[in-house]
Amino acid sequence: MTKVPGIGKVLIANRGEIAVRVARTLRRLEITCAALTHPDDTGNPAAAFVDEACPVEGESAISAYLDIDQIVSIAKRIGADAVHPGYGFLAENADFAEAVERAGIRWVGPAPETIRLMGDKIESRRFAAAHGIPVTPAASEEDDPASFSERAKEIGFPLLIKAAAGGGGKGMQIVRHPHELSHAIDLARSEAKRYFDDDRIFAERYLDEPRHVEVQIMADEHGHVVHLGERDCSIQRRFQKLIEESPAPAIEEDLRERIRAQAVLLARAAGYRNAGTVEFIVAPDGESCFLEMNTRLQVEHPVTEMVTGIDLVEEQIRVAAGHPLSSGQDEIRFEGAAIECRICAEDPERDFQPAVGRILLLRPAKGPGIRFDGGIAEGQDVTAAFDPMLAKLIVHGRDREEAIVLARQALAQTVILGCTTNLAFLERVLAHPDFISGRVETGFIPAHRTDLALPPLAEEERAALLSVAALTDRDFMASVEAVPEPYASMGDWQN
Hints:
Layout: E1 9-12, H1 16-28, E2 32-37, H2 45-49, E3 52-55, H3 61-65, H4 68-77, E4 82-84, H5 94-102, E5 106-107, H6 112-118, H7 121-130, E6 138-140, H8 148-155, E7 159-163, E8 173-175, H9 181-196, E9 201-205, E10 211-219, E11 225-237, E12 240-246, H10 253-269, E13 274-282, E14 288-294, H11 301-308, H12 312-320, E15 337-344, E16 346-347, E17 353-354, E18 357-358, E19 361-363, E20 370-374, E21 381-382, E22 389-397, H13 400-413, E23 415-417, H14 423-431, H15 433-436, H16 444-447, H17 449-452, H18 459-471, H19 474-481
Parallel strand pairs: 1-2, 1-4, 2-3, 4-5
Antiparallel strand pairs: 6-9, 7-8, 7-9, 10-11, 10-13, 11-12, 12-15, 13-14, 15-22, 16-17, 18-21, 19-23, 20-22
Helix pairs in contact: 4-5, 5-6, 13-14
């Protein structure tokens, strides 16, 4: 019998880093784990890490990983007791959750009706407001498409045009002037359709220099709801997070307690079950507004695990099996500080343009307080087919100062060759005086673009690097050592 009665085998409906991370907990719980694999996703380490790799078919790996009918069929065929969706792909798809449960298989996540309510940005805002949680002024296009532009203008500028579905910064456009509105609406609607197959959009007041603070909650079917502290996720590029930490630095304790309480209130009102994250925007004056709820496990969940000592995936499995939470609110302790850095295949010097290549060498940092959640392996091809995040480097220190020092050391010690990454850029962010002092907001990176730029090389360093590059380039050395004509044609003839 496994350590979680009722669940003996789980299909992880995902790939890469999150599939490996979920499988690691399943193995510790003595639960058989299976994951999806596609021919175009060769080298995906999850396929080698799990007990069973399940081929999934499709014109592309992306379409295959989004094929609900096929994935449910696989889960039934292999005898899975539960399906864990990870994050991304189908993780917040209520139709997928419904199909899994209809097949008699446990869904590791909130109920389908909860996903529909809280996973929809428009409906979740209305729900939060109805329960007394502040939201920013907004206007929904679907209420009256013909008057949407005018209603959006009445909110006042700057505006944020957002997709009603999905997340990850997709389908979002900042509008600072009225003449930009029409184009931004068209662009946001187009992106929403492309990324989420749902072109519903809405507009909300955009707060300048806001902080992005979120609260992790867990709930079971027995009426227990707890929070596991908050995370600051303000360091972002193009609305996508790069560095997250817990606890959130430099905020008043009454604000900290208020948003934690609001997150629990919202989850309880929604009849929530399993893991979820309630996100808030915090203005420079300390006022907070509900932003959205993510009805899944977040990418940044490890920082919460580091400060609480609670394995969130284990809690997810326990709840999915019908068991109560392992800890009550009074039993949860918060120790030290944790920071997560998302290591991505991208070039910060070229506006974070995604990079491709083959992982020739991978040497993650190791040591006390360091955790490396990776989704890559040596020899693996990094393509543009998936999100550019390759791995996450997470550290835990006795306090935030120690965590920052450890994170910088760990980034410097981590080696990934064969593909351009943001490793050095992340280290520069952590070294910035404003980050060290906790003065962070979602526009931190563009505001400090000059400070965070790659410092120029000294002439002697440039010459040394060019020499090394030349001496290690096969084609260059072949041309240097080649015998010129007509002597090459003479063979071994000598005078």
